[in-house]
User: What shape does this take?
Amino acid sequence: MTHHPGAGLGALFVLIAAVLWGTTGTVASFAPDVGPLAIGAAAMGVGGLLQAALASPGLAQARQELRRRWLTIAVGGLSVAIYPLAFYSSMRLAGVAVGTVISIGSAPIASAVIERVIDGHKLTRRWVSGAGVGLAGVVLLTFVEPAHAAEAGNAALGVLLGLLAGATYALYSWAAHRTMQGGVPSRVAMGTIFGVGGVLLMPVLLATGAPLLESWNNFAVGAYMALVPMFLGYVFFGLGLARVRASTATTLSLAEPVVAAILAVVIVGERLPAAGWIGVALVIASLAVLTVPVRRRIPTPAGAP
Assistant: This one.
């Protein structure tokens, strides 16, 4: 983890985002008649356009920097559009816990590979140990989902879509962080990339979103998903990305499946087996490894008392 002024605050912002994201699976379960493509397009599409609206005052000032980074922004925007479609489809096919765990648990590895290959960043021992403990926890958490949650014969496809979601999550996180490193403010960088993704998702929402208007319950679920985890959550995520590396942010997001599992127990009434609680403990331990600042000893000059 890169430690610089504000890194601890950045980690806190990412954790807040992860907690908000962890509510999505439980909330989506209250609208079973709405397909995963509609849920994903409404959540990330509308949320992305709101991010763009929030950033609009600063877009003109940053237009030169944004134009120079058009390829990074395009990759990020396309990843934003693909991510929710893969993520919510994964949860529908493989179950809420398994889909969340695969999607979020694979993102740190994908993010580290992207940073290693493109940016040449070396992986620190601390990051490797923290990510390893967290990934061990999310592997255990895959066993908390009841068998009936997955549709027969589609679990494997759900896992593959989860891996796609993890890769695209890592890509847009990297793109946003890189854009911010180029001098673009956090709000503008997030608004531009998520605005592009939101525009790309609008045709999907128009084609699949009719069930969202069939009842107040369905509409409320869609509105919550767009406004709270996707809009407010990504505001916090952007503030965090401005302070920590993308690989650190995606690793901190391992808190999301923990929140998802706890909500499944408390609200949905699912039973969390012993392996699940051990997984929760491991993920919390990984967050401690990644977020507690390291105190470096300052060498004492020779001859000093």
User: Anything to note?
Assistant: The CA atoms of residues 112 and 247 lie 5 Å apart. The chain is about 75% helix and 0% strand. Residues 146-153, 298-305 have pLDDT under 50 and may be disordered.
